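Open question from group meeting: does this chain pack into something compact, or does most of it stay loose? Before anyone orders reagents, we agreed to write out a predicted structure and look at it together. Recording both the input and the output here so the notebook holds the full record.
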Amino acid sequence: MIAANLENVKKRVRDACLRAGRRPEEVRIVAVSKAFPVEGIREAVGAGQADFGENYAQEFRSKAEAMKGRDVRWHFIGHLQSNKVKYVIDDLYLLHSLDRMSLADELQKRAASVGRTVDALIEVHTTDEATKSGILPDDVLNFARALSAHDRIRVQGLMTMGPFSDEPERARPCFRRVRELQAVLRREGPDHMSWNELSMGMSGDFPVAIEEGATIVRIGTAIFGSRTATTEPR
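Structure tokens returned:
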């Protein structure tokens, strides 16, 4: 089932890219494996999937240990508490949710202690939903400038979440706002930072995100199936 679901997602990515005049290889699919067992990750790897996203630090750590030696790139896509950085620092491929200076400080310290740098996306808050994290769009430029002192963090772009809705088009203004912000940061942001990545779109709205410029889409239920009502994210 997972292999078939992956093929269906890839087809939808191709279709969205065609509508937007983009190449499918411009879009990376991150399979959101939160709350799904390691067996499902193994099945997805067997079907050619390499990028996986987790929301919780200890679950990230457990699955990274279980998949040691496999060709897996681990993305952390949830709200990361500063005191949980220690659980992800060794295996983190890309952090999608850099949203405050205290987290940047801890990432800097932990990355220096293990002799590595951390690739990260700045999370942008684009809805009126208080439950979502992120930097307000008008504050992102100053936040990026403040991050310049953190030489162990490499900013690669931006991430956002659209509103919780059954109507994908409701997310389009959020995604468009982040694409417009990307253009501003390319002109005015710190020269040493890259703004090429836009992590936008999940199972319910990723075609719209691709049409608005997403380079990374975070897909959970459309690949792995339904989670329980108490654990299911978008």
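Observations to bring back to the group:
The first strand starts at residue 28 and ends at 32.
Confidence is low (pLDDT under 50) at residues 229-234.
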